Amino acid sequence: MIRFRNSLRVAVLGMVMFHAVAAHAAEVSGAGSTFVYPLLLKWAATYYVKTGQQVSYQPTGSGNGVRQIKAARVTFGASDMPLKPDELRAAGLVQFPLVIGGVVPVVNLPGITPGQIRLSGPLLADIFLGKVVNWNDPAIAAINPGIRFPDRKIVVVHRGDSSGTTFNWVSYLSKTSSAWNESVGTGTTVKWPTGVGATGNDGIATYIRNVEGAIGYVELTYALQRNLSYAAVQNRSGTYVQPSRESFSAAASAADWSQRPDFYQIVTDAPGANAWPIAGVVFVILPRAARDAASAKAALAFFKWALNEGQADAAAEHYVALPAALVKQIEAYWSENIK
């Protein structure tokens, strides 16, 4: 674990920092969500080429990102769990959605290909509760006819850090399993009944790839980049849905942002036959009145570019861009709430 954390620090320093910026450019720094890291990395690189503006981002987990922005150590925080309006006001912060993606269960089972197996919310909850402990359990076989599972112990892998990806994962489990809701509940951190912890989406992806019999959860891009096998998951309508930009978009289309103060909304377990049930929204958190006005202005310019011109990058990284009407609503929110 120590070796992994050291490697992650090296990766962050080597991949995220963009140097040799114009002398007049304000410094823009961010921290938080690992869920959105692949896209923010790509956006920052593209934006730097276009404008010479440096945007540095540390994928430290949503909980850490919230702590960093509250302490004014970064220009912006990013979290997959929205803050409630009262908490935002108390801390002098604002938030807005940036992009939509999906959390997927990933497994390491020899011979199992991406999307081949099916899992439901109650079954996933029982696995992460430690009630279903072997891959040849009848409950798994019952919804996967024709697939022969090995007589192998299930190794549960979960986040060990404060994580918005975890928040969306356990939100889905809580909405579909009363046993999970009553015994574990939701949050960026929970008291896990079983399993081993890893840091960041990348940490879970690495563990899954290296340990046969393992199951965990990551944002889809991490699964695709590392060629991990993911599962189709049962949604509210009873349909087993494959994770894709289309199913994420179907989940997002059920959301109505117009009456949501500070855009507070959770989109897991969305209605719709084609909706992915573990969709997540990434939120950017900024101060209402920043100490460094130049950096705050530069950050807003970056996000305005990302929301209006960064759509191709979002699609390439398997995220869903926000609808144009919502982008206009966000820009009006900036004018009304950020000094």
How is this structure best described in words?
This protein has 339 residues and is an alpha/beta fold. The protein has 2 domains: 155 residues, 3-Layer(aba) Sandwich (D-Maltodextrin-Binding Protein, domain 2); 150 residues, 3-Layer(aba) Sandwich (D-Maltodextrin-Binding Protein, domain 2), CATH 3.40.190.10. Strand 1, helix 2 and strand 2 form a beta-alpha-beta unit. Helix 5 packs across helix 7 and helix 12 runs antiparallel to helix 14. The protein is elongated and about 60 Å long. It starts with a helix and ends with a helix.
In short, what is this structure?
The protein is of the alpha/beta class and 339 residues long. The protein has helices at residues 2-16, 37-51, 62-70, 85-91, 121-128, 138-142, 164-176, 178-183, 200-210, 220-225, 245-252, 293-309, 311-316, 324-337, and strands at 28-32, 55-58, 76-79, 93-107, 118-119, 155-159, 196-198, 214-219, 229-230, 232-234, 240-241, 279-287.
